[in-house]
Each structure stands twice: as C-alpha cells, then as structure tokens.
Amino acid sequence: MSQHLADDLPGGTGGGRLRVWLKASAYTRRLLLGTGGDPWLSAPQYLAYFSQAQGLLRPDVAVVEVGELFDSWLSRHPEVAAELGSKRRLSFPLRKLLEQEEPRQILAEVVEAVIANLRGQTPLVLAMPSPKHWLHHANMLAGRIEVELEPDGIEDAAMYMADLLRSVSAYPVGGVLLEEQPADSSMGVTDVERYRPLINVAKHYRWSLALRPHGGSALASPALAEFDAVISPTIRVPKPASSGVDVGAALWHGGSLPVLDQGQFYFVEIPAEQQPEFVLESLVRLRA
After folding, report:
1. What does the pLDDT look like over 12-39, one tens digit per residue?
2. Percent of the chain, pLDDT > 70?
C-alpha cells in the first residue's frame, strides 16, 4: 500500500491494491473501549486505541473520524455548546464549533502521531461529514430542529471546513472522505458544486477526495468529476474515478456479494454491536 490514497485506488491512475475500505470506528470503540468509551481525550490516548484497531482489522485504509473528534470535545465543553445558537445565521453553529483551538490542536497531534505510526504503508484518510451534513448536525446541536439548508449556507460550511483542513496541511494526508448519513431523508440531493471551497483546498494539497452521498443519489455536476472515488450502494462513476461499492446490507444479512468490476472496491461499515467472530469471517469473505 501507499501513503497516498490515489495510488491505491483501482482503475484509472491507481494501482488497484485497495480492495476493501472499512468504516469501523463505532465497532472498534465499543470492542476496545467499551460502551461510551472515548479515545479522543488526547493524541496519545487516541494513538493507543488506533494501533489496537489497526492490528485487529488490518484495514487497507486508515481512517480518522474528524466529526467524532469535534463531537467528543463539544460534549466535554457545554459552555461552547451553549453558544452555538447565539447568532441566527445558518452557518454560525458550525463556524463556532470549527474555530475552537483545542480540538484543532488535538486533530493536528492525532494526524502527526497516526502518520508516524503508519510509516507510509497505508494511506491516512480524514473522514468528515459533508459540508451539508455537518451544517445540519451543528444546527441540531444548537437546538435548531427545523432548518432549511440553503445553498449559500452549505458553501459557507465548506469554507469553514476548508480552513480546518489548512490547519493540518503540513502533514502527508492521503485523502479526505466527505460523508452524509445514508438514511438521512432530509438531506435532499447533493449538489457537490457547493463544496467548491473544500474541493479546491484538497486539490491544492494534492489530497485525494472521496464522497459518500446519502442513499444512492448525487446531483450530476461537473464538480463530481473532481472526486477520485464515490462510495454508494448504487452510484457507479466513470473512470478514471473509482467506485466504492457499499455492500454492508448484503454482507451483514448473508446476501450474495457483487463481483467487483475494474475500477471498483468494496466499502463496508461495521455495525457497532456486530459480533467479532462474524466480523472476521465476513472480512475473509470480502478479501478472498
């Protein structure tokens, strides 16, 4: 494997070595730290957890869940949580959250420690909520239950996230994954052109970009071609981009798995409460 995600993606310019991309944070936290366990208190504590999780699953992609870090930090700082809704602007709760210096420092320390631990053998991907989803989530944290995600607010969210990425630009990050919640019906269709500030920053640092839109829909947009991979149960993108085939539903319910075509890889999210024996058997099945 390589420290650059693009080098491992199948098809196009990639070497094709990536076969299985795991989303496993909820599962490994429960298994290694217990229910409610939190690895985000410090970089050394996170690295200890991360090393165990890597040894347990041996994933092809090393993933750091940036959204989890900020949620964890906010849960320990209710005084900041109380300020998220202090201004009416749609993008203010996310701006207030992402400008906090302490979680940004923890993120930088975690990225530095994880990259040193990986020794250039596995790409490090920063998994982040998409600008649209993080905007929605931050407003929910501010107590705003009914919000309309208007386009300018989404673009503002992408701008604040781009600034966050700049704070770790000194490190050889392998890629960035933008995720929406697959079952979130309130998200609407994704217009990735509104993510332009974030796309531009990732491209400037030559970091690969991957997108996991909610459900199976993404708005056709020229900006979609700037993503190196799109992960979905149904969306398949043309080369040179790679398609991450989300087979979680079939895998955990005993269904048949699709045969990977050229330029495709499996993507699986491991449920938090899944049994370890079944997880290991399923991974063998995927990697066979």
Report:
1. 555 678 999 999 999 999 999 998 899 9
2. 93
- Residue 112 banded pLDDT, cuts 50, 70, 90: very high
Exposed e or buried b per residue across 270-283, where buried means at least 16 C-beta atoms within 10 angstroms of its C-beta: beeebeeeebeebb
CB atoms within 10 A of CB 265: 25
User: What is the C-alpha separation between 31 and 275, in angstroms, rounded?
Assistant: 9
Structure tokens at 112: 């530095």
Asked if residues 20 and 286 have their Cβ atoms less than 8 Å apart, the reply is yes
Q: What would the two tokens of residue 73 be?
A: 């930090």
**Measured distance between the N- and C-terminal CA atoms of the chain, rounded to whole angstroms:** 18
Cα torsion 44, 48, 53, 58: sign:
positive
